[in-house]
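Marked as duplicate of an earlier ticket. Keeping the data here for the record.
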Amino acid sequence: MWAIRFFVGIHVLILQGSEGAAFTMPALIIKIFAMPSSIRLSKRLVELIACSRREAELYIAGGWVSVDGQVVEEPQFMVGEQAVVLHPDAKLEPVSPVTILFNQPIDVEFTPQLICAESQAADDHSGIRILKQHFFKLTQCLPLERNATGLTVHTQDWHVSRKLTSDAATIEQEYVVEISGELISDGLALLNHGIKFNGKALAPAKVSWQSETRLRFALKGVVPGQIAHACQHVGLQIMSLKRLRIGRVAMGKLQTGTWRYLNLYEKF
């Protein structure tokens, strides 16, 4: 009696007789290809709601589609037998660019990874639905100088970026400065106007005492290092420097290391 054994990957059949004799012969190998069991999420959505491919991609990118209860924002996501659901309030519109306000921590070099879903402020009342796309292609405007903390702006909106870049010299910024040392006579008046930096007279500022060890600076056209230079000029040393406001947008109660969306009604 003959027994037939087949080894995967070897294109021969080994025939073995009852007496132990064996010989080989060419084998015809037939490969059977299974039909794909999964398809792109956008294609599945097209099948489910009879929309165009572009419409499906907009729904998905907008965070309106869930797969087994989890929101998926990638049209190319592969699905099989999972439950695909379109949110009943879904809107067929492109994702609008956002602007994010971030409270930069001290002694931490900024990286884009600091702004993520986990670090969103619990009291963000903007009403904007958080999407993965909101964390891509963010441009930082008016960066803080080294060792400073506080309000920073990161935007996808070219209108905001252009405003903060082209009008940087006229947009007022507010800082609170922790200081040590003894202020010289007429030092406060000098801080408000009369100090030169890098050979040029600084623009008039609004400087006032906030407490015995804190000064409030409100000034335009801020140049990195100018506040420290001004303080040293009048006998003071900076212990900490924190930005509270840019234009008409204040950091408010935003906690260190957290962020919130810029509200639609807020303008710099």
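See parent ticket for discussion. Residues 1-33 form one domain.
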